Amino acid sequence: MPNKGLQKLRESIDLTLNQPGAYFQLEILATGISSSSHGIADFQNVSSTSKDSFRFPTSEPEEGQVDNNEIISLFHQGEIFHLLEVDGGEKEWTAFETGDTGWGSSTLAPLFWLQGVDQVKPLGTSRYQLSINMQRYISEQPTSDARAQAKKSLENNMVGLSTQILSCEVKCDPRGRIEWLSVIMPIDNSPEIPVSLEGEEEVQPTKKTISLSFIDHPPSIPKPDANFRYSTMEFINSAVEQDKLDLPTREKD
User: Fold this and answer.
1) Which residue among 79, 120, 156, 252 is least crowded, i.e. fewest CB within 10 A of its CB?
2) Which of 172, 186, 176, 221 is nearest to 45 (CA)?
């Protein structure tokens, strides 16, 4: 039987995930890149939209950083849409199909990973340190198909993620809803990911932080018509293979 702290937090998680929707801010800090997203999510219809900004540090620290790269993104029941410029022309919606119908492939996935919490340490009246057992998260899914899809989405995100235990911190609002969370991702040691070359920045764990401001009614987020469609995994695998081809050139430089 779970202790009172764990039971209370699970009630907060259920309350949070059953809200109509929320404005959100997502910050990702990773080796070689940082990003921020500002948007709105419809928790009832599994959709969200945001403006995403990416920042890449330059190779010469004294020059600071390059300008932001911004895109408009939309997530709808497992499909990821980006408003992108095509062949130097006007921007058009491009869809990436994940094969997932839930939140597992979205940028807000860490919020739903909280279903796998198995240890809680109170840090105050509304703040908690958590351990998220990803195998428990998978087992919490309602059907065998959903469990299989949850595992697949985690492995697509990072090889081995479906068996990891993640460190996370959350803060609850006065109504008991989780309004802030920060999760530390493990370092991806997949053989498909090229190792750092001499002189490159050492890879550090990625930190993802989500802030939420809840709303009383589900927002209207129309699904766009996309002129271009791709399989997400085929796109990622193609990028990885291209990076492998570029590796010898980078080593010479």
Assistant:
1) 252
2) 221
- What's the number of domains the chain is made of? 1
pLDDT tens readout for residues 59-106: 444 444 444 578 899 999 989 999 887 776 788 899 988 878 789 889
Asked whether the whole model's pTM tops 0.85, one would answer no
The number of beta carbons lying within 10 Å of the beta carbon of residue 125 is 6
The residues with which 183 forms a beta bridge, in sequence order, are: 168, 208
Q: Which CATH number fits the domain that encloses residue 224?
A: 2.50.20.20
Determine contact, residues 59/82, Cβ cutoff 8 Å. Answer: no
C-alpha 42/C-alpha 75 separation (Å) is: 10
Q: Is-contact 132 90, C-beta < 8 A?
A: no
**DSSP string covering 166-208, please?**
EEEEEEE-TTS-EEEEEEEPPP---TTSPPPPTTSPPP---EE
- Detail the DSSP E strand segments found in 43-114: 47-55, 69-76, 79-85, 91-97
Asked if residue 54 lies in contact with residue 29, where contact means CB atoms within 8 angstroms, the answer is no
Q: Alpha-carbon Rg of the chain, whole angstroms? A: 19
Full domain range(s) for residue 61: 4-252
User: Torsions phi, psi of 12, nearest 5?
Assistant: -65, -40
